[in-house]
Amino acid sequence: MPKSSPSKPVDELTYEAAFAELETIVAALESEQKSLDESMALYERGQALVKRCSELLDQAELKVKQLSGNELADFEEAE
Q1: Ramachandran angles phi, psi of 3, nearest 5°
Q2: Rounded mean pLDDT of the chain?
Q3: In this structure, how many other beta carbons lie within 10 angstroms of the beta carbon of residue 35?
Q4: Among candidate residues 46, 55, 52, 57, the one with its CA nearest the CA of residue 23
Q5: pLDDT tens digits, residue range 29-39?
Q6: What CATH code is carried by the domain that includes residue 68?
Q7: Cα Rg, the chain, nearest whole Å
Q8: Which domain, by its residues, includes 17?
C-alpha cells in the first residue's frame, strides 16, 4: 500500500482491487520491517479486505445460482 495515496474505503473496492491490496498487505507483513502499530493497522485492513472479498464472492455465487437455476446444484452434486 503506497503511503502517498489514501486508502479507498473497503466497501467501495472491487474484488480485484481488494485482493490486490490484500496481497500487498501480506507481503508488507511478511517483510517484518514494520512497527507493531503499523503491523496492527495493516492486519486490521487485511481483515476488512478478506471480509469484502468473501462478501463479493458470495454475491457472485448467489447470482450464478439465480441465473443457472438447478443446473449449478446438479453440477455440485456431480463432483
Answers
A1: -75, -20
A2: 84
A3: 8
A4: 46
A5: 998 788 999 99
A6: 1.10.287
A7: 17
A8: 11-78
